[in-house]
Design a protein that fits this description.
2 domains, mainly alpha, 423 residues, two-stranded antiparallel ribbon
Length: 423
């Protein structure tokens, strides 16, 4: 909203300083500051309101140190994060931008699913919450919206690199006829094009085209790329959303990890929307995607501000209201800037937490079938899943577990960025 107001003041009245709102960096900084203020100032009021409404966490006794002390701690604190994301984005972003619209819809959609789950748990006294099939249906729904929008919307385009006339990858020595490789100097095409290309690490040019998987169909196979792209989008949104949900098991773990991932995605969005940096890193230039930096700045500010109250010992839990939304936001954002194939590295903490649960279940079922249930219970793969609970069972304090997972998250974030220059 402020962008349009100050743009009008700048054009119509030449108000001094109004033009600064044209800069993404300034608006991103303002979004970050406002997001922090909302989560810090209003966060306390929301926590007090949750206390008054007796919106407390129900804790099962799993034999973990300090677990029962958390009983009654307010949950549904994800409302703080969602407010700190949505409000600054509405204030400072270009609201006609298709990427911003998509991120706002995804945030509200997934936040509503999580809120409904928490509401059933807290107010309906149903520990199971929203049935799993309805959660998955909701995730599939937003995945469909995201996939269809990014594939069919005319504003979702890229500028691909081309080679100017006269440039050649090879030169011929007129003396002996030998060929030698000459570095080409590609430039971005002047025309924006629809493309199903995305960034992939460790391969030449760092690009992968979804439509290439359908090349066996013959001429015109590119038009069927949506058959690959949309289901893949649904899979990513569902997996990352659930991964963040599973990771949200001890104070500050999901919040801090999400903030680290958010900073990395912000860097990737900025370079993808800037021709100079995109050219240097040899990645595709995505017009108008730079506006996403404002959204992700609010995302990081909301996470960091919430961490003020969520760090050990937590004064509030985000609940599914926050965790489902955080994971979904990360997934949709990565897909929008065409970095979704970097998710296994960037979201490695979420991935390991998710895989640890699947491994635990699969191993237990196998041992139960082979040796009986008593043996399976006594010989689990992990002492408890997800993985952070395994380390709690080993005697590590949860604050130390969280700190070390954050360090791993930072290492993975750096590796993610480094992969852009690895061929």
């Amino acid at each position: 909203m402020f962008y349009y107001l100050f743009d009008f003041l700048d054009r119509q009245f030449d108000v001094p300083g109004a033009g600064v709102f044209q800069y993404i960096s300034f608006r991103a900084a303002m979004a970050l500051i406002v997001s922090l203020l909302i989560s810090l100032v209003f966060g306390k009021r929301i926590i007090n309101l949750l206390h008054k409404k007796q919106v407390g966490e129900t804790v099962r006794d799993l034999g973990l140190e300090g677990q029962l002390e958390k009983k009654g701690t307010p949950t549904m604190g994800g409302l703080i994060i969602l407010s700190a994301i949505v409000i600054p984005t509405l204030l400072f972003a270009k609201l006609h931008n298709v990427y911003i619209i998509l991120m706002l819809v995804s945030t509200v959609w997934l936040g509503a699913i999580g809120f409904l789950d928490d509401y059933i748990k807290v107010f309906k006294k149903n520990k199971e919450g929203l049935a799993g099939r309805f959660k998955v249906l909701g995730q599939i729904g937003i995945g469909l919206i995201v996939g269809i929008t990014l594939y069919f919307n005319d504003d979702v385009v890229v500028k691909e690199k081309i080679f100017t006339s006269g440039q050649s990858a090879y030169s011929i020595d007129v003396m002996d006829g030998s060929a030698s490789h000459t570095p080409q100097m590609p430039v971005y095409a002047t025309q924006e094009t629809k493309s199903m290309k995305t960034t992939i690490p460790f391969v030449k040019n760092n690009e992968f085209d979804y439509s290439s998987l359908l090349s066996f169909l013959g001429d015109g196979y590119e038009k069927w790329a949506w058959l690959i792209f949309i289901p893949f989008v649904i899979l990513i949104v569902t997996a990352v959303s659930n991964g963040a949900n599973i990771t949200d098991g001890i104070d500050g773990l999901a919040t801090g990890t999400s903030a680290i991932i958010g900073v990395t995605l912000g860097i990737l969005a900025y370079v993808s929307g800037n021709t100079v940096f995109a050219d240097y890193l040899n990645i595709m230039y995505i017009p108008n995607s730079g506006e996403l930096v404002i959204f992700i700045a609010a995302f990081v500010g909301g996470c960091v501000g919430f961490l003020w109250y969520n760090s050990f010992p937590a004064q509030v839990f985000m609940g599914d209201t926050g965790s489902l939304a955080l994971g979904g936001i990360i997934a949709v954002f990565a897909i929008a800037i065409r970095k979704e194939l970097l998710i296994p590295i960037l979201c490695g903490v979420f991935l390991v937490e998710n895989v640890s649960v699947m491994m635990q279940v699969a191993y237990f079922k196998r041992m139960k079938k082979k040796h009986g249930i008593e043996y399976a219970r006594a010989n689990r793969l992990f002492k408890m899943a997800p993985l952070h609970h395994h380390y709690q069972k080993l005697g590590f304090h949860e604050a130390k577990i969280v700190s070390r997972f954050w360090i791993i998250g930072i290492m993975l974030a750096v590796l993610t960025i480094v992969t852009l220059k690895l061929r």
